[in-house]
């Protein structure tokens, strides 16, 4: 599938939720300019899709119809969608002609989308009209770039969330270095108010990021990597640490990991990864090194991005709750030289990996928190024994009164704050 087809499929994904959302685009009693323009776009797309069907360019026609159908109740589009199934079998000459016809159609459709975007509309329909702008950008980025940049500039002054959505949509449709840089800055600023979902630059790893109050890229900042357990409530877990951070200067990160759970097939809704990654990690015979390798390499890529973009310190603080302890212990044993302090909480231990000989392990602060009422008891006994046998001398185990199977966010953050204070 070429990038143009991919962009149209992405556009269909962007359009569907807002065009079909209840109350967002009520059907008018009579013809309106908005419905007229949407119908005109659908007509142009269906016209080219019909030609594709004649020339056996099935996949090319199908992407056009998928975009057309949410825009207007077009019976011809519905009929075409039933016929445009399977793979393309068109000739090279047909593909060349299609490229020319697509270019012509793109210019017409982009102009119609821009006309749609320019219509006066209620404030509560802004998301729908922004999708029209992204539609124009998908079909003809050169022509739509200026209106898009103007809309982003206006939104940055009045509605940062809207500016973020526009840039995220633009980057998904047509990646661009200028938009990517602006998007990064907006994401970082937005994460001070509430965690944002991001992707590592050099890895498929996705993660939630929360920057502390007063963050500026000109300073160095300590980082806490908090690894969620098997429930995979990644955002909720990170929010627990955000609440306990208060005015502490920690950058907080929760990666969307796989080594924390055996049940990827049961918690797929918690992830935002492409289907192929979820399928590769959905191994039902228990935890595998494949998952752990993905997670370890992904976290390393995330931290590298944070050092470049956020002023993150070289070493980092690490905690892992329940199944998140698998990655936390593995990192502790293999790479203690990368860590500032470690605090597993009611943690599991899988026993993977080798043992580092780095001298830093002798003084690495480690506190293992265990809820006094945890029905699972201590699940990391073997890991504690390995610490004692392999030269980890700054180790303490703490039972937390009144807590059961818990992330111990308050205790973990207090421990990290103490380590941070002691080093100054």
Topology:
Blueprint: H1 3-19, H2 33-54, H3 58-68, H4 75-83, H5 92-118, H6 126-139, H7 141-158, H8 160-173, H9 177-193, E1 196-199, E2 206-210, E3 223-227, H10 234-245, E4 251-255, H11 275-281, H12 289-310, E5 316-320, H13 325-334, E6 339-342, E7 366-371, H14 381-389, E8 395-400, H15 409-423
Parallel strand pairs: 3-4, 3-5, 5-6, 7-8
Antiparallel strand pairs: 1-2, 2-4
Helix pairs in contact: 1-3, 1-6, 2-3, 2-4, 2-5, 3-4, 5-6, 6-7, 6-8, 7-8, 8-9
Kindly describe this structure:
This protein has 424 residues and is an alpha/beta fold. It folds into 2 domains: 3-175, no CATH class; 194-423, 3-Layer(aba) Sandwich (Rossmann fold), CATH 3.40.50.1820. It is 53% helix and 9% strand. It has 15 helices and 8 strands. It has helices spanning 3-19, 33-54, 58-68, 75-83, 92-118, 126-139, 141-158, 160-173, 177-193, 234-245, 275-281, 289-310, 325-334, 381-389, 409-423, and strands spanning 196-199, 206-210, 223-227, 251-255, 316-320, 339-342, 366-371, 395-400. The strands form 2 sheets. Strands 1-2-4-3-5-6 form a 6-stranded mixed beta sheet, sandwiched between helices. Strands 7-8 form a two-stranded parallel sheet. Strand 7 (366-371), helix 14 and strand 8 (395-400) form a beta-alpha-beta unit. The longest helix has 27 residues, at 92-118. The protein is elongated, with a radius of gyration of 26 Å. The chain starts with a helix and ends with a helix.
């Amino acid at each position: 599938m070429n990038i143009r087809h991919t962009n149209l499929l992405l556009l269909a994904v962007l359009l569907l939720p807002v065009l079909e959302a209840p109350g967002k685009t009520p059907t008018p009693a009579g013809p309106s300019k908005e419905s007229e323009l949407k119908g005109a776009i659908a007509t142009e797309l269906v016209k080219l899709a019909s030609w594709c069907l004649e020339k056996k360019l099935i996949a090319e026609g199908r992407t056009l119809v998928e975009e057309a159908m949410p825009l207007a109740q077009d019976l011809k589009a519905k009929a075409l969608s039933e016929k445009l199934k399977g793979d393309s079998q068109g000739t090279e000459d047909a593909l060349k002609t299609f490229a020319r016809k697509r270019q012509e159609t793109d210019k017409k459709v982009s102009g119609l989308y821009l006309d749609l975007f320019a219509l006066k509309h209620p404030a509560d329909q802004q998301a729908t009209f922004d999708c029209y702008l992204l539609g124009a950008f998908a079909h003809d980025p050169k022509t739509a770039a200026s209106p898009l940049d103007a809309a982003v500039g206006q939104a940055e002054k009045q509605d940062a969330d809207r500016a973020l959505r526009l840039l995220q949509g633009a980057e998904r449709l047509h990646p661009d270095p200028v938009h990517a840089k602006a998007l990064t800055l907006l994401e970082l600023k937005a994460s001070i108010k509430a965690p944002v979902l991001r992707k590592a630059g050099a890895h498929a790893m996705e993660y939630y990021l929360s920057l502390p109050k007063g963050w500026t890229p000109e300073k160095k900042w300590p980082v806490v990597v908090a690894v969620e357990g098997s429930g995979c409530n990644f955002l909720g877990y990170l929010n627990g640490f955000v609440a306990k951070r208060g005015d502490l200067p920690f950058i907080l990160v929760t990666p969307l990991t796989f080594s924390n759970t055996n049940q990827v097939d049961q918690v797929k809704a918690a992830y935002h990864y492409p289907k192929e990654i979820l399928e590769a990690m959905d191994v039902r015979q228990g935890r595998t090194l494949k998952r752990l390798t993905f997670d370890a390499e992904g976290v390393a890529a995330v931290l590298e991005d944070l050092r470049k973009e956020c002023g993150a310190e070289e070493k980092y603080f690490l905690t892992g709750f329940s199944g998140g302890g698998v990655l936390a212990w593995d990192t502790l044993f293999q790479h203690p030289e990368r860590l500032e302090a470690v605090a597993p909480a009611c943690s599991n231990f899988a026993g993977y990996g080798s043992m580092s000989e780095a001298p830093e392990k002798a003084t690495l602060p480690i506190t293992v928190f265990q809820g006094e009422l945890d029905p699972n008891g201590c699940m990391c006994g073997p890991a504690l024994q390995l610490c004692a046998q392999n030269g980890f001398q700054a180790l303490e185990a703490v039972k937390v009164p009144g807590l059961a199977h818990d992330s111990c966010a308050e205790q973990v953050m207090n421990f990290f704050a103490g380590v941070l204070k002691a080093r100054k």
